[in-house]
Amino acid sequence: MTRLRTPRWAWVLTGSGHFFVECFELIRSLDHCDVFVTKAADEVLRMYGLKLDFSDTTRVLHDKTASAVPVGEFYHGVYHSVVIAPATSNTVAKCVAGISDTIATNVYAQAGKCRLPSIVFACDTAPELETMAPHGMVKVYPRPIDLENTARLKTFERTQVVESFADLELAVARRKGEIDGRD
């Protein structure tokens, strides 16, 4: 096994299929990443028939504890950046409300408490969207509250909310450049 390097990326997968497969490819492009998998993301993995097959420099951490024990590593400098992608409307709403009762929302809360930058790829960003479901493309009509929560999250300190996969790629590349410039 490859020696793990610190600090690392913290990438959270939530229970949305919105660009789920594409997010895997982006994760694979990162060295030294920990993937936090929510219980809902585990369900999406099964629906899409996907496996968490990443490089040796990537650890996978599942949401199996009530207090999300793995997030304690934030206080020991293990992470430099957080990416929540894709982020469900449920995750966005909880982040906005300050609720941290899943591994996703707990990671976001700890990142804030440790003053780490977060990139959030919110799924519900427009009144009408097309997204991939297990059996093909579907139209989605986010509720006004979902759009309001996405807008509110954009105002949070050290949080960049992106609205498209292309914007996610750019945000990750920009952050990667900042990290590589420090090395």
Write up what this structure looks like.
The protein has 183 residues and is α/β, with parallel strands linked by helices. It has a single domain (8-178), classed as Flavin prenyltransferase-like (Rossmann fold), CATH 3.40.50. Helices cover 37% and strands 24% of the residues. The chain has 6 helices and 8 strands. It has helices at residues 20-28, 39-48, 89-97, 103-113, 144-153, 165-182; strands spanning 8-13, 33-37, 58-62, 79-87, 118-122, 129-133, 136-140, 159-162. The chain has a 6-stranded parallel beta sheet with strand order 3-2-1-4-5-8, sandwiched between helices. It has a two-stranded antiparallel sheet with strand order 6-7. Strand 2, helix 2 and strand 3 form a beta-alpha-beta unit. Helix 3 (89-97) packs across helix 4 (103-113) and helix 3 packs across helix 5 (144-153). The longest helix is centred in the C-terminal third of the chain and has 18 residues, at 165-182. The chain is globular, with a radius of gyration of 15 Å. The model has no long low-confidence stretch (mean pLDDT 90).
Shape: globular
CATH architecture: 3-Layer(aba) Sandwich
Oligomer: single chain
CATH topology: Rossmann fold
Q: Which CATH top level class fits?
A: Alpha Beta
CATH superfamily: Flavin prenyltransferase-like
Tags for this model:
183 residues; alpha/beta; Rossmann fold
What's this entry about, in short?
With 183 residues, the chain is α/β, with parallel strands linked by helices. The chain has helices at 20-28, 39-48, 89-97, 103-113, 144-153, 165-182, and strands spanning 8-13, 33-37, 58-62, 79-87, 118-122, 129-133, 136-140, 159-162. It has one domain: 3-Layer(aba) Sandwich (Rossmann fold).
